[in-house]
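ARCHIVE CARD
Drawer: 12
Card no.: 0347
Subject: one protein chain, sequence and derived structure
Cross-reference: see card 0346
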Amino acid sequence: MQAHEFDEAGFFGAIEQSGARVLLIGRRALIALGMPVLTADYDLWVHMDDIEALNGALAPLELHPNHHPADARARGRYVLENDEHVDVLVARAQTTKDGVRLSFDDAWARKRRCSTPRFSVWLPAIADLILTKRWSMRVHDVQDIQFLEALRHEEG
C-alpha cells in the first residue's frame, strides 16, 4: 500500500472553514514560525465544545477519530488518523511541570494568525507556545523553548 500525499492546505483550510477553535501547537507550530526542524505529526489543541466541528471538517480528508467526542473529552485527548497522525488535545487547561496553568480560553484570546500563500492557521502567542512546550519538558522541548525565547526577544 502506498501512502497518499497529504493535502496540508486542504487540512488547514478545512479547519478554518469549520469555525472550530483550534490552535496548532507542537513542532509544526515552530515550523510555521520558521524553525528548521522535522516532525512527522500534527498537534492541535481544540476547544472542548468544538470537537464535533473539527471531526466533521476533517472527515472528507479521511481523518478518523480514534475516540468518540464524549470519550475524548473524558480522556483529554484523541487522535485523528489515516496515513497522517494528528494528536488532538482536548482540555480546558493544562499545567506545566512547574505548576504554571494555561487555559485554552486564555491562549485563544492571545492567538496569532500564521498565513502562507496557501492557508492560514492559528498559533498560540509565543509566550503561550513556550508554556505548551513546558508541559512535557522533553529534550527537544528544551531546544524548542530556546528557539522561541530567541524569537520572542527579536520581536521585542
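Annotation on reverse: The chain has a mean pLDDT of 94. The two ends are 49 Å apart (CA to CA).
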